[in-house]
Predict the structure.
Amino acid sequence: MNAADLIQPQRAATEIPRQRGLLLALLIANSSMLAVYMGVGSVLLPTQIASIDPANKVAVLGVIGGISAIFATAFNPIAGALSDRSGRRNPWILGGAFLSCAGLVFLGTVRTALLLGIGWCLVQATMNTYQAAVTAIVPDRVPHSRRGAASALVGLALPVGGTLGVLIASRTADNLTTGYLILGALVAGSAALLSFFFRDVPRQRTAPEVSRQAKIAAFLSALSHHDFRWAFIGRALLVLGYFSVVGYQLYILDDHIALPEGMQPTEAMAVLTPVSMVAMAVSTVVGGVLSDRWNRRKVFVGVSAALAGLVTVIPVISPTWPGMLAFSVLNGLAFGCFMAVDTALVTLVLPKAEDAARDMGVLNIANAGPQIIAPFVASTVVTVTGGYGPLFLTGGALALLGALAILPIRGVR
């Protein structure tokens, strides 16, 4: 989940005092957060569900994943607004992290799907409290001259934290309690580091409170803009296709892919995730640089979305370990390039420059919303068709539709 849609308070002073080491602490804080999301969501939670209810694991994961995503999406703006109103970030960072740690420890003790679902919803709620406050630190405490470096480091949190989380979870899949405890301790330690060594910066709120009706009107006005609307649709379709497949990767490795003899699905995850994340990081940098150099956005976004759709055929035709490796590399390359260049594209089709922050927040719904829908889509496809091949094809079709949605955009080359 993201907190980019929050209206952040602005400092009254023109200069923000620099805090040495803050960017590194932000990288650690964001990486630990993504380690929890990826480690639990991709490995520990599916493993635990499979042990509790192996016959209905696909449907159970779909229900728990979908409902918990609603909690995450709701608590992020609520916690962000409360943090804004209090004028402080550190208490929310510490509170969210330590409550998440307690929730993760609780998850390691439960033995029913109901308690597992309740526990994961609580962790999503508290982790998004933590995330909302951490995300607000960049505009609060980072000088304008260092915002680029801050954004780059925060961007590195996905490959760093995602890889770390999956590696920890894969190594502890046989002892879930230990895995949950390590991930909980990781986020609690990161919160303590950030809060104890970097003080809150006083802020003065200058933006007026925005009513619910005004937010809805803003949402509708942004989507009434032709190019922005198509960019929104393209992003939503690509993200929905991506997370429909990725969220079920452990079960795919267990039930669909012929792994090498002696390799467990969790061990395969520990290989595939770093491979995909490295590919994603490379294509993010290369795609962003080349799109700037050639002054072309649509071709990069469209081609990468189309590639993300086409590569889903590989595990269908070749449900083997080499096939899955090839899919992970190409899918990582496609998704990384798409997200990097599509963000640049969106900044060029914003309806009004003065409403840029608000409209980028509207776009964020195209990131968060599909993640709520994806578990339901995936579990329905697998349950109805009885296999994972149709799930890959469904994800690919959604990505291809996302590529087609880029074509009507007129204001960007």
